[in-house]
Amino acid sequence: MERIQRQRGDLPRDAVLILAWVVHARRQITVPELQEALAVEIDKSALDEDNIPTVDHITRACAPLIAVDTESNIVRLVHYTTQKYLERTRDIWFQNAQIDITRICITYLSFSAFESGFCISEAKFWDTVETNKLYDYAAQNWGHHAHEPFALSWEALEVVDFLEREGILQACSQALMVPKYQHLRYASQMVPRQMTALHLAGYFGLHDVAVTLLARGHDPNIEEEDDTMVKLLLDNGAQPNFQDNNSHLTEFPLLWAAKTGHKEVARLLLEAGADPSAKDSFDGDGRTPLSYAAQRGYQNVMEVLLASGKVDADSRDIDGRTPLSYAFDNKVARVLLASSRVNVDSRDEVGRTPLWHAVDDERLDVVQLLLAYGADRESKDNFGQIPLMKAKEGLEAYKKGNKWPDDLRKSQRVLSLLV
Q1: How many CB atoms lie within 10 A of CB 135?
Q2: Are residues 189 and 122 in contact, defined by beta-carbon separation less than 8 angstroms?
Q3: How many Å separate Cα 399 from the centre of its chain?
Q4: DSSP string covering 380-404, please?
Q5: Most CB atoms closer than 10 Å: which of 24, 76, 217, 336?
Q6: What is the CATH architecture assignment of 1-94?
Q7: At what angle do helices 11-24 and 97-109 cross, to 10 degrees?
Q8: What is the largest CA-CA distance in the chain?
Q9: Which InterPro entries would you find in this protein's record (predicted)?
Q10: Domain extent listing, the chain
Q11: Using CA atoms, how far apart are residues 120 and 159, in angstroms rounded to an integer?
Q12: pLDDT of 271-297, one tens digit each?
């Protein structure tokens, strides 16, 4: 490092910034991403391509500490001991690294090219990501890098000003959320629209930013996953049962907490008066928070909901299904069955019981538990089918080539419990 500092011209300054990115990046950084990061000028509205350094410049500035992987195009340190050394001496070499990276990211995201906001074309969105090499990384990670600067009393207003630019906010939010929807066709068009500055402050847990936004009059009625952020919003007037029917984001907070498994958020909302028996109008299926928590295996959230004493553990959705019919595993099912209010043989709109649904999904441990609790294995649905007949369909699917051997073994085990 001392030898690097003795280089001539801009090399020492560039070397420190290059190493700061390589050491502090939240994932491995590629050459094009690093090149654009180094070319960013704070407070400028576009990237000056004349500032983009060559690969030779990058490697020469930091020789012999970094290397470029020719196959992946990733910039990395030559040895893990280098990483350990630089982490150990970060207060010497990288005192302002997170501040610098945060500023580079929000400057990049604020470029005039992104001011038009949410991109309504799937092809155009991906063209934007491909053309602007640092865009994806900056959108995904700027808030994570901002954590340390705020711990060092960095000025929150710089981020607040960034978040209050509506077009920039919507474009950045779209790029941030796309990975969560990548399993869907046209992912960029399926993400939530009209996200707010408080949504992003909450997403990244930037409490100082949230406080400033609230002081500036931003609406606290949003969904959040950070329990301290939720407390802050509730203390500032957020309504625990708020549901914005004019927005794509229409899940009420407790339903969202149940879907995402945030026990402490659920507890805070219940203490603030959230209705645990309210049903979902977002998806139109009439399901309760308990139903979603059961389906997704969030036992701790279920226990908080049931402890409120205000939950119907046997409530039915629009299809007549109860939370027990969605039970993710036997732990979840056991929590429900421990309630005297749960009917092990409840029938949905087509006469199917929790046992039938467990067999259909091949949830082996749930099938075992339901049978142990006396579930009726001979119960017929409205089409005359019993759970055993459904289990046999699993074997037929294998014979037709629609199942892998591991799935066949699961089908055989479920069948063996019912015969």
Answers
A1: 23
A2: yes
A3: 38
A4: --TTS--HHHHHHHHHHHHHTT-S-
A5: 336
A6: Orthogonal Bundle (1.10)
A7: 90
A8: 84
A9: Ankyrin_rpt (IPR002110), Ankyrin_rpt-contain_sf (IPR036770), GPIID_WHD (IPR054471)
A10: 1-94, 344-418
A11: 26
A12: 888 888 888 766 668 899 999 999 999
